[in-house]
Design brief:
Blueprint lengths: L30 H7 L26 E5 L8 E5 L17 E2 L2 E2 L3 H5 L13 H4 L13 H14 L17 H30 L1
Antiparallel strand pairs: 1-2, 3-4
Length: 204
């Protein structure tokens, strides 16, 4: 490909200091690969450790890339762990058989993990996900009505598992799965735009 190892960045939003597992040992399996290739796992362009940053201290550009989401259902804006979504960057997302309550997520959960806390917690209820967070202003104020309408339509259409009881605030219910998939679609809308930007960079 003509690329050097140090041009590759492995990104996981849960490694940020305010996310679920900034000290998780599960990522240690990648460390020998980063030593061998020069790829970056735990640091930003700025030199700061990913685990030392949080939503309130992330530096725009070098540590977080913000993107607006037109035609959104849940998220009006999403933050990505830099350099994900940077102009001219390519996002390499490899499908895997990720076992999850939603089914086999393939590449969807990988892409979810490129966002910063609390946006990456797509399985959780919005009211808990953004509780007391300045990021709450990035949530569509009409999301509940829109999710409910979409859920009703999809359940009536016979979408499998959408008949599970529970509200949109419970991830393992039919309505909760509608919530997860709409957050994921908001996120993947931006992924599609990123691919378009990268192809334009190649054409220049």
């Amino acid at each position: 490909m003509g690329l050097k190892g140090e041009q590759f960045y492995l990104r996981e939003g849960n490694l940020l200091g305010d996310a679920y597992c900034p000290t998780s040992s599960s990522m240690q399996v990648f460390v020998p690969m980063t030593w061998r290739t020069g790829a970056k796992l735990s640091t930003f362009y700025t030199g700061r450790l990913v685990s030392a940053a949080n939503l309130g201290t992330l530096k725009e550009g070098g540590e977080v890339i913000w993107r607006q989401v037109p035609d959104r259902v849940v998220y009006e804006r999403i933050g990505y762990v830099a350099p994900i979504e940077e102009e001219g960057a390519f996002n390499l997302n490899i499908a895997k058989f990720k076992a999850h309550g939603m089914g086999i997520a393939l590449t969807a959960k990988n892409w979810q993990g490129t966002t910063v806390h609390p946006y990456l917690h797509c399985c959780g209820a919005v009211n808990r996900q953004f509780e007391d967070s300045p990021a709450a202003s990035d949530v569509n104020p009409q999301y509940r009505a829109q999710i409910q309408a979409l859920y009703d339509r999809h359940r009536a259409g016979g979408v499998p598992r959408w008949d599970r009881p529970g509200s949109i605030d419970h991830w393992n219910s039919g309505a909760g799965m509608e919530m997860w998939i709409q957050k994921t679609l908001d996120n993947h809308w931006e992924e599609g735009q990123s691919v378009s930007r990268s192809l334009k960079e190649l054409a220049r």
